[in-house]
Design a protein that fits this description.
heterodimer, A: 424 residues, alpha+beta, Cytochrome-c3 Hydrogenase, chain B, 4-stranded antiparallel β-sheet, 3-stranded antiparallel β-sheet, 17 helices, 7 strands, B: 341 residues, mainly alpha, two-stranded antiparallel sheet, 13 helices, 2 strands, 2% strand
């Protein structure tokens, strides 16, 4: 048992921010001359905190003088669960961290486990390409949700419905392949068990055909819209130094002009064989980050197209590693050995050699890292997730001071965090 | 064609006035209810959705269902609320909006079949009708401010304050945008303005700038997108009516929609000739013109993001106000010059 006195104090007792009366966050501070600064408690139930984020603001009129983020309302102990579940059992939990981009989360975790097992090189090429396709579809889906809700927070109501319409096509693709839409649990250690249906490729081609015009449609609505520009240009400026020192990743870092994308910097899967560009920003403001997300979606479409062209049409989808991967479903039904193998994998799991691995991949929101320490048992000794959303969220305190309430909403939108991942 | 414009209160028996009031009330509430349906259907069409379909044929009973639902909802008064003000605020919004609607003339006079009588299709022809409507709009804002203040909720308070600042700024341009019309038609009576337009030409021809300025100010005045800051959902949850529920909330809601109808009605009346139009009867023409304005409202809501507080004020004082003043100056100068020649 952990010593409870050293854990984080409950929220009501926390001194929230310097300058706020320690007794209660509800007390307003009276300034010299009788003016009062008002404490506004935004969330955890609030339309635009993207989940259950609580923001405590000290306001002077509408201007934010101090801002404090309170997180933890969605904490489910995911990392601890990972230390108490067998490796394969934990995969569905990764869906539920950044629940907007489940396949990509799966990928990071599965790649870490495979590295731990030492079978990274044994994954069939066909499966590797398919992983990239799913990861890039996820990126598009995540950016669609990000831009849609961001625009809706700023008041462009229709954008969210348009982007969700296209996201629906991606969810249909996931559904076609694995039956699930949101929490897909789509990746497996060793590759893919199920064959890819032909209809999947038809639907993907249709999506690739439709998506560019839809992106152009969004841009027609927003890019030159004077209100949108007024609300996003120059808002939420993050300096290059801040971006680096806060450890930001993903579109936020690239908007600040830092050319860091794990796909290019430390290529994994087949990204080194693909031709795509990393869009970089100049002004590091909300508008730039919006443009970067739009451009990243275009690049993802390019990647998917190339993958479909380069991917071997035939060949196995699953690595030939009987000790670690599940046997095919038909074999389990009709072959005694396969059934025994399946039984053993389900009941005992596999035990990777002792050691530790870190695998970082470029999730839609930034670098998602899985750090696993194995002690040679079927459970991880320590499992740590590097959540891009949480680390990106840290900058809000700094960049929202001096802006207005409406700007804070725009900033939260541009951070594009998912509270499931922040709290885990 | 000359119309004998007389004050209905002196020219018609009291019972007829009473009937007119009831009929107008019915029209106002029905129109308002179906404006929500119209809005939901139009915005659904723009957003690639269906809108209400389940309640009645094509969802036509949706407004009735919504109204009933709100009636049966629990009426919650927050413990910290200023009870009387909290109670009073929605009534102010609702009553002023409805009163303003009564002043809009739906038509000229109509011949009643089987009798030899003519009936006025407007309740009253006040000689200061336009001013009264503006004044009622000004009073209606008190409801929002007081509602926001009385709720004992910080979102409501900010919503109320935003509304106060917004309405003070836009009331000015709203009134001044109509001055050009008053100068040209030489009257503040809505019926006279329509008759002037029938005799000459629709005022939008002489006052295009005034028309656009009026439209922008009117949208801001009624707290609609992209000027819907007092109830900006994504910032202030529901703004000034965060704490209101049940029928009290529906009064704010009714008030907002009737206000939209009022400003659409005035725009149709003073710029587009009101009930004036060929073939179809007057009220239908007015209705079509109002629908057009409502469509603009919905269109803007579906398209535009929301302004920020300081941007909103900047537009009012730095752009709209100078333009309205210039419009008045030019209109007056031209009118004097033409009269002289």
């Amino acid at each position: 048992m952990a010593d409870t006195t050293t854990t984080r104090p409950i929220i009501a007792d926390m001194p929230h921010m310097p300058g706020i009366d320690e007794q209660s966050v509800e007390s307003d501070r009276v300034l010299e001359g009788g003016d009062r600064e008002m404490i506004l408690n935004l969330g955890p139930q609030h339309p635009s905190t993207h989940g259950v984020l609580r923001v405590v603001l000290r306001l002077d009129g509408e201007v934010i003088r101090a801002c404090d983020l309170v997180i933890g309302y969605l904490h489910r102990g995911t990392e601890k669960l990972g230390e108490n579940a067998r490796y394969v059992q934990f995969t569905p939990w990764t869906d539920r961290t950044d629940y907007i981009s489940a396949p990509s989360n799966n990928l990071g975790y599965i790649m870490a486990v495979e590295k731990l097992l030492g079978i990274t090189d044994r994954i069939p090429e066909r499966a590797t390409y398919f992983r990239v396709i799913l990861a890039e579809l996820t990126r598009i889906a995540s950016h669609l949700v990000g831009i849609g809700t961001h625009a809706m927070d700023i008041g462009a109501l229709s954008m969210s419905l348009f982007t969700f319409r296209e996201r629906e096509m991606i969810l249909d693709l996931f559904e076609n392949y694995c039956g699930a839409r949101l929490t897909t649990n789509i990746m497996e250690v060793g590759g893919f068990q199920r064959p890819i249906p032909d209809t999947f490729w038809e639907q993907t081609r249709e999506f690739l055909r439709v998506m560019p015009e839809r992106l152009a449609e969004y841009e027609k609505l927003l890019n030159a819209n004077p209100i949108w520009i007024g609300r996003t240009k120059g808002i939420g400026y993050i300096s290059r130094e801040d971006a680096l020192s806060f450890g930001l990743t993903g579109p936020l870092l690239r908007a600040a002009g830092v050319n860091y994308d794990v796909r290019k910097a430390l290529p994994y899967l087949v990204y080194d064989r693909l031709d795509f560009e990393i869009p970089l920003g100049e002004n590091s403001d909300t508008y730039d980050r919006y443009l970067i997300r739009m451009e990243e979606m275009r690049q993802s479409l390019r990647i998917i197209e190339q993958c479909m062209a380069q991917m071997p049409t035939d060949g196995p989808l699953m690595a030939d590693e009987p000790k670690f991967v599940f046997p095919p479903h038909d074999a389990v039904m009709f072959e005694a050995e396969a059934m025994q193998r399946h039984f053993k994998l389900v009941i005992e799991g596999f035990s990777p050699p002792p050691g530790e691995v870190y695998v970082g991949i470029e999730n839609p929101k930034g670098e998602l890292g899985y750090y696993i320490v194995s002690d040679g048992t079927p459970h991880a000794y320590r499992l740590r997730i590097r959540p891009p959303s949480m680390i990106n969220l840290q900058i809000v305190n700094k960049i929202s001071v001096g802006t207005m309430i409406a700007d804070l909403i725009a900033i939260l939108g541009t951070i594009d965090m998912v509270l499931g991942e922040v709290d885990r | 064609m000359s119309y004998a414009v007389v004050n209905i209160l002196s020219s018609q028996p009291g019972w007829l006035t009473a009937i007119t009031v009831v009929v107008l009330l019915f029209i106002a509430l029905t129109m308002m209810a179906y404006m929500t349906y119209y809005e939901r259907k139009v915005i659904a069409f723009m957003q690639d959705r269906l809108g209400p379909t389940r309640t009645g044929p094509r969802g036509l009973l949706q407004p009735a269902a919504d109204g009933l639902k709100l009636l049966f909802k629990e009426d919650i008064i927050p413990s910290g609320a200023d009870r009387w003000v909290f109670f009073f605020a929605p009534i102010v919004v609702f009553v002023t909006a409805l009163t303003a609607f009564m002043i809009i003339p739906l038509g000229g006079t109509a011949f009643v079949p089987f009798t030899a009588k003519h009936v006025n299709l407007f309740l009253t022809d006040l000689n200061v009708g336009l001013l009264l409507i503006l004044a009622l709009g000004g009073i209606g804002v008190y409801g929002i401010i007081l509602g926001g203040y009385a709720s004992a909720n910080r979102y409501s308070l900010i919503g109320g304050l935003r509304s106060a600042a917004q309405v003070i700024s836009y009331e000015l341009t709203l009134g001044l945008a109509l001055v050009g019309v008053m100068l040209l038609s030489g009257s503040l009576s809505l019926v006279s303005i329509v008759n002037w337009q029938r005799d000459h030409i629709w005022l939008i021809v002489f006052q295009p700038v005034g028309f656009i300025l009026y439209l922008i100010s009117a949208i801001a005045e009624t707290n609609r997108a992209p000027f819907d800051l007092p109830e900006a959902e994504n910032e202030l949850v529901a703004g000034f009516h965060t704490e209101y529920s049940g029928f009290r909330f529906s009064m704010f809601f009714l008030g907002e929609y009737i206000n939209m109808l009022v400003v659409s009605g005035i725009a149709a009346t003073v710029f587009l000739g009101g009930w004036d139009g060929p073939i179809l009867p007057g009220p239908i023409w007015l209705f079509i013109k109002m629908l057009l304005f409502m469509f603009v409202y919905i269109w803007l809501r579906a398209t535009l993001p929301r302004f920020r507080y300081d941007q909103l004020m900047g537009i009012a004082w730095k752009v709209l106000l100078p333009l309205t003043l210039a419009n008045i100056l030019i209109t007056a100068t031209v009118k004097v010059l033409i009269d002289r020649l």
